[in-house]
Amino acid sequence: MLHHLFAKFALGANSNLLKAIYEHDRAMLLPAIPSPDFITPVNYIGHLGDPKYYQSYYAFFASRLQEKGVSKTLEEYIYSRKANYDDQHGNNQPKMFSRFLGGLYHPMIHLGYGLEFGVVGVVAGALAEMAVHETHISPLIPASSWDDEGLLGEISLASRMTSLSLGHTAPELNDVSPAPSSRTEEISLFNILAMIQRDESMTTQAVGITEITRTSHYEVVDKLQGALLKYATMWTLNIAQGTADDREVERKIEEFAFVVTLMYGVGGWRTNEERPFRADFALMHLVTSSLFFPAIVAYFPPHAIRLLFRSYLCTALALWITKQKPALRIKEFMKSTSISPQDPNAALKLSHKPVKDTLTPETVTPNPWLAIVPSVLEHPDDHLCKIMRSLMHWANLFGSRPAGYWAGGKAKLEGIEALDGTLFLRVAGLTMGELGWAKEGQDVGEWDHSLPPGIPARVHAARFGQSH
Fold first, then answer.
1. Has residue 376 got a pLDDT over 70?
2. What are residue 43's phi and psi, to 5 degrees?
3. CA–CA dist 317, 419 (Å, integer)
4. At what angle are helices 246-261 and 384-398 packed, to 10 degrees?
5. Which molecular function term from Gene Ontology is one that the record holds (predicted)?
6. What pLDDT is stored for residue 349 in this prediction?
């Protein structure tokens, strides 16, 4: 419910709509369960991963935040070495960062909302949610991840990471940095994606997973951890120890915005099936979580930003591989999908005659987002507004990127030369078509929880995590 309210508030929901969301969603709320015991600095490690202790963890982190402030609390309990690997804990390592990125990134998303809206209670809730998550992805975040952490120093991005922040416009009005396509010596996320797409050893079949189930994602993590970590270190990430160039951080966030949208959007597009788009529930969370990079990195020092980016990349690639690396037919996608998505009743809006001096009388909605947002606001699905907010924000920042902007590098992703900033709007239109223009009378659709096609399965509705 909280994410639903925040997302639609940010999209412009009025008080009546927010009340309606509360009434709609409260039926799904579970009763608060008192924890068996208090959580203290002495025993907080002992109950990690146990949902029964959520209330006590919430109280514990709320007190820590009040005492230490947000920045110090995040350092101590999320990204410090001690919060993850500490000799005194033996085999019972806390591994908080793997909990932070677990559960389809929900602790990360929750923290993002808390930081974006400045609600310390939500930050406490994010830390408590992190504490009760499991550590299934910990092989992708080994203790060696902290070997090059360097000096913590002061957090220098908090006052400068504004050009990608929510509510701001395109970041590069005065930027004269060369386009990524001209930086041929660098390895981008697109290059990494191309290499893994062609690497036959990076498949579930290659590591002996013949039946895809709910736990297959964790099997991929276990069996491909070495290769995933190797690919992640190949990614050019020029964030030095102790300092961080905010433009480099912004460029890497932009790479993530495009790549996760490719995974979900282009990967979900079909031409030869009854359903033209498969709105994959798990891959959708890559897009929704990417929205909060700007808010989170503003509180992270350079070594923690590197840790976040490389760890997130590993988990995203593992999820994509588990989904059988859906084909990325970028050139065909850019040719065949619409940059003017319309609701089913759009033609009815032209039933009246525009006045003489109307500039484009034949156009129903000159700005497609002005058609999408009102429908999203009234839609009952709580994930639709979150992904649309992400897509709209990235379109606002990067929608003017020309074709060929990302075409550099030696290992080119097939069709990358056709990719431009309209990607986000195209994917938004396909998602609306699948989830339904409910306000306009179209049936409400559903997210795709199915397994990849052509793979035998003992569980036909596998979910890689749970909705929160």
1. yes
2. -110, 5
3. 20
4. 130
5. oxidoreductase activity
6. 65
Decide if 239 contacts 249 (C-beta within 8 A). Answer: yes
Q: What's residue 361's pLDDT?
A: 72
Position 283 confidence tier, pLDDT thresholds 50, 70, 90: very high
Q: Specify whether the CB–CB gap between 372 and 398 falls below 8 A.
A: no
State the DSSP code for 442: P
| Alpha carbons 443 and 437: distance in angstroms, whole number | 7
Task: Provide the token pair at 188.
Answer: 């981008």
8 A C-beta contact, residue 101 and residue 108: yes
DSSP 269: B
pLDDT in the model for residue 154:
40
Burial of residue 357 (CB within 10 Å: 0-12, 13-18, 19+) is exposed
More confident residue, 168 or 90: 90
Does the pLDDT of residue 240 top 70, yes or no?
no
Buried b / exposed e over 285-322, threshold 16 CB at 10 Å, is bbbbbbbbbbbbbbbbbbbbbbbbbbbbbbbbbbbbbb
* Amino acid symbol at 378: E
Q: Which residues neighbour 11 within 8 Å (Cβ) at sequence distance 6 or greater?
A: 373, 376, 377, 385, 388, 389
- As a residue count, the chain comes to 468
How is 135-191 classified by DSSP, letter by letter? -TTGGGS-GGGGTT--------STTTTTTTSTT---S-TT--PPPGGG-TTS--HHH
Q: Where are the alpha helices (DSSP H) in 69-215?
A: 70-74, 96-100, 102-117, 120-131, 189-198
Q: Residues 140-179: pLDDT tens digits?
A: 999 999 986 543 334 444 444 555 666 554 444 344 455 6
Are 428 and 389 contacting, i.e. CB atoms less than 8 angstroms apart?
no
Copy the structure tokens of residue 135. 């550590």
Separation CA 3–CA 15 (nearest Å)? 16
How far is it, in rounded angstroms, from Cα 285 to Cα 287?
A: 5
